[in-house]
Design a protein that fits this description.
213 residues, mainly alpha, Four Helix Bundle (Hemerythrin (Met), subunit A), 10 helices, globular
């Protein structure tokens, strides 16, 4: 679990460092994740990470039942209704801060707390997701690294910046993408998450696109 946590910390810090340079106009730029602006998309990433403390505070279930890849299975968790709730949560959270910089300070506090709490847990720790799935904490952390990595690309693309994807996050994401290069780069990650089209050769490799909200 330590390698995944290290990737989580590095990718979260990389996003934090990049976002610290955003102008107030850039915070209000639209993103491909409609209807979110840059600011609201960071609010979504913050919400996605903020589930961790409550998950760790709850009693652990006896065993894990799904993997990180199975977390992204196409069921009710990615339905129109659930996606609408996801959109509203992010927008409501972002609206609670007067500036993008203030939201960023909150995001930084949240991910650092999550990192600290997770490091106190054993590798065998099982948690329950908000969708009711028992999963190893180490596997759930893979999904949080993906959130940081993929939405980091969305944020960078929205304001015309070079991606800040870290090599350690790319290594973690590789576990979720059968047929991908040994270390997916930003371009490949866009393709594997439906943000850019796959070539015929890439489709022939059997690359499975993840179901994302």
């Amino acid at each position: 679990m330590s390698e995944t946590l290290d990737a989580f910390r590095r990718e979260a810090q990389s996003l934090t460092d990049a976002a610290a340079t955003f102008s107030e106009d850039e915070w209000h730029a639209p993103t491909r994740c409609e209807p979110w602006t840059v600011r609201e998309l960071l609010g979504h990433v913050r919400v996605a990470i903020a589930w961790l403390p409550d998950m760790l505070a709850a009693a652990p279930p006896p065993r894990a039942e799904i993997s990180a890849a199975e977390y992204y299975r196409p069921d009710a968790r990615f339905s129109s209704r659930t996606n609408a709730t996801r959109v509203d949560l992010a927008r409501a959270h972002a609206a609670g801060y007067p500036t993008g910089a203030a939201l960023l300070r909150d995001f930084t506090t949240v991910w650092r707390k999550a990192d600290r709490l997770c490091r106190a847990e054993p590798s065998s720790r099982v948690v329950i997701t908000r969708h009711g799935d028992p999963i190893l904490l180490s596997e759930f952390l893979v999904t949080r690294v993906l959130e940081l990595a993929v939405h980091g690309l969305d944020l960078a693309d929205a304001i015309g910046r070079e991606p800040w994807l870290t090599p350690s996050a790319a290594e973690v994401v590789h576990r979720l993408l059968p047929g991908s290069p040994s270390r997916p780069d930003a371009g490949f990650l866009r393709k594997a998450t439906g943000r850019a089209p796959l070539t015929a050769d890439e489709e022939a490799l059997g690359i499975r696109r993840l179901t994302l909200g």
